[in-house]
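Dear H.,

Thanks for agreeing to be a second pair of eyes. The structure we're designing against is below in token form, covering all 620 positions.
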């Protein structure tokens, strides 16, 4: 099967920053390989293999790309055995920088150890060793604060922890990890702190915007309830909802009017008086269900409104007091982060180690400087390297962080030789300080490839899914169009993001099933041994309920797997041309926690062969 128009554009685009938004199953790895092959085999615009950077998220992905690239070049050489350029590229492929970002950075640091201020024979600490160093540094800093400024410690503990000191160390660790993930973090934190020392006008403006949006949300819910009431001719009830809709719509608009004093606007928001709901007697089951729905919805937004007014309605004096407290707390945290950083640096220097976070921090130090206006600019090394490298390709760009993105841009030729691939819908590493807004902002600033000029940053969208049946794709699109928006998930799940079913499967019913499990009925189908029952009895009440649910779900899963394996109609795509019957290795069960996965695994084994159970994969 040939490439699609979008894939061809991604393979052939040159001379401009290219962002590829590649949905699941869209063939992005094949596109990356084909693009690299074309670049390396191009004899008119030669790019030596050693001048190519390909950054992947895992070592396995890097190894796969290198192997496939080598095989493709070997095939080309077999077709053109006298091509000296291809021979050179094949022999130099081992020098191409195809690796994870950390591997690339560590290599660059070793090559420039003296400039980086580290020993060239440094050792790389693993994650556990890094955690121990951070924990030790925090413990030392807390001890120092206790002696130097017990008042500071008490204020921080009261603010964050309700007097539990171990929680204070957790706060410091989280803030430290967040802070040092930012380039020039000291400058950024200082700028944030300066923002607290000025006028509170911007804070109040943002707070009013949030209240206005909340009022709009209450209004929309009231309107929804009004339509519910109208559907069963509960006119008096409908009028009540209409009044509440109009009231919240009015508040949403008036609260933004800066001609009205700030405190008066806050009082306006907090002055809603919910009238008693008129009585309505349902005449049938449907009307009774509708009444239950609109009553529950109204109670929900009434309760939310009351909680908001009780705990989160801030007048001018509250804002001023809050600003002073936060300015003080932030100044403490900045001081503490710097002290923790110094402690950790001393430990690393003594042990001659660098951590994975250092790979990025030290690389930024090597590549970036601040100019006379305080802007980030390239160092001499960055200028030299950006002239040297001809192509920079980044996979899984949605999981990049600010440090990594800055490194890529410092190495590029004004971003004109940057080629980044990602999918915002697959961003899952924010807890490791990845920043999906980098990808989102790049999408927003880029021009659609067909409309872009020669030097414009362009976006190419690969939404064809060559992996799943149309039924699966339709279910995914339907589900995410309902739950994914710019507020929840960074993007609106529009036509630009939805998947297009492009895999060919035989005609059959593949409708997505949602299995409703009856715990009481299914539980009896398991014959537990006494050791497992005793183990379960030791759990808390809440855990016992979870175990019961796992038993029932495991039975349903086991029965479904047996059904899938026994039917010749359940087929799996091997490649673009071949289908085969479903096998145990094709089946994946995702659970919320690792422990639930282990428990489910045991119970599924009771009903189906061990080979099936071994195919279970628990999402970490």
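And this is the sequence the design step returned. I haven't edited it by hand at all.
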């Amino acid at each position: 099967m040939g490439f699609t128009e979008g894939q061809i554009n991604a393979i052939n685009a040159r001379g401009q920053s290219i962002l590829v938004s590649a949905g699941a199953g869209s063939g992005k790895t094949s596109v990356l390989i084909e693009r690299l092959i074309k670049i390396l085999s191009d004899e008119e615009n030669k790019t030596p293999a050693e001048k190519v950077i390909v950054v992947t998220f895992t070592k396995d992905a890097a190894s796969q790309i290198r192997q496939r690239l080598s095989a493709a070049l070997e095939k080309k050489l077999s077709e053109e055995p006298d091509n000296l350029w291809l021979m050179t590229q094949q022999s130099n492929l081992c020098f191409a920088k195809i690796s994870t970002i950390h591997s690339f950075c560590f290599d660059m640091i070793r090559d420039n150890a003296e400039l980086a201020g580290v020993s060239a024979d440094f050792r790389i600490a693993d994650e556990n060793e890094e955690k121990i160093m951070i924990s030790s540094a925090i413990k030392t800093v807390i001890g120092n604060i206790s002696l130097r400024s017990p008042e500071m410690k008490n204020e921080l503990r009261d603010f964050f922890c309700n007097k539990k000191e171990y929680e204070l160390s957790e706060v410091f660790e989280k803030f430290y990890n967040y802070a040092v993930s930012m380039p020039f973090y000291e400058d950024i934190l200082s700028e944030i702190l300066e923002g607290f020392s000025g006028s509170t006008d911007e804070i109040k403006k943002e707070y009013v915007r949030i209240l206005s949006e909340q009022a709009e949300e209450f209004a929309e819910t009231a309107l929804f309830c009004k339509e519910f009431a109208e559907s069963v001719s509960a006119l008096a009830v409908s009028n009540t909802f209409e009044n509440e809709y109009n009231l919240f719509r009015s508040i949403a608009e008036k609260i933004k009017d800066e001609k009205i004093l700030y405190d008066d606007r806050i009082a306006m928001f907090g002055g809603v008086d919910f009238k008693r709901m008129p009585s309505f007697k349902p005449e049938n089951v449907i009307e009774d269900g509708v009444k239950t729905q609109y009553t529950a919805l109204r109670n929900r937004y009434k309760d939310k409104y009351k909680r908001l007014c009780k705990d989160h309605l801030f007048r001018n004096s509250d804002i001023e007091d809050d600003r002073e407290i936060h300015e003080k707390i932030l100044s403490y945290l900045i001081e503490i982060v710097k002290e923790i950083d110094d402690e950790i640096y001393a430990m690393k220097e003594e042990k001659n180690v660098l951590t994975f976070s250092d790979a990025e921090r030290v690389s930024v130090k090597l590549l970036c400087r601040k100019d006379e206006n305080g802007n980030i600019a390239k160092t001499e090394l960055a200028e030299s390297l950006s002239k040297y490298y001809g192509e920079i390709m980044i996979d899984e760009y949605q999981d990049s962080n600010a440090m990594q993105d800055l490194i890529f841009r410092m190495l590029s030729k004004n971003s004109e030789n940057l080629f980044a691939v990602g999918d915002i819908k697959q961003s899952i590493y924010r807890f490791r300080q990845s920043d999906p807004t980098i990808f989102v902002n790049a999408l927003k600033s880029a021009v659609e490839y067909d409309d872009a000029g020669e030097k414009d940053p362009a976006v190419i969208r690969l939404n064809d899914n060559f992996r799943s049946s149309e039924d699966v794709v339709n279910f995914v699109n339907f589900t995410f169009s309902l739950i994914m928006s710019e507020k929840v998930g960074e993007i609106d799940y529009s036509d630009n993001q939805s998947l297009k079913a492009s895999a060919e499967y035989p005609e059959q019913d593949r409708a997505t099933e949602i299995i409703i499990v009856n715990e009481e009925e299914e539980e009896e189908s398991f014959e537990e041994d006494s050791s497992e029952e005793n183990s379960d009895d030791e759990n808390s009440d809440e855990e016992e309920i979870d175990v019961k649910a796992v038993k029932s779900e495991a039975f349903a899963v086991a029965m479904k797997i047996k059904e899938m394996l026994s039917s010749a109609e359940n087929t799996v795509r091997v490649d673009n041309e071949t289908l085969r019957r479903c096998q145990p290795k094709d089946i994946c069960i995702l659970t919320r926690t690792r422990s639930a996965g282990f428990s489910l695994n045991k119970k599924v084994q009771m009903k189906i062969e061990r080979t099936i159970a071994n195919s279970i994969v628990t999402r970490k």
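Two observations from my side: Residues 316-351 form the longest helix (36 residues). Residues 282 and 288 are 5 Å apart (CA to CA).

Warmly,
E.
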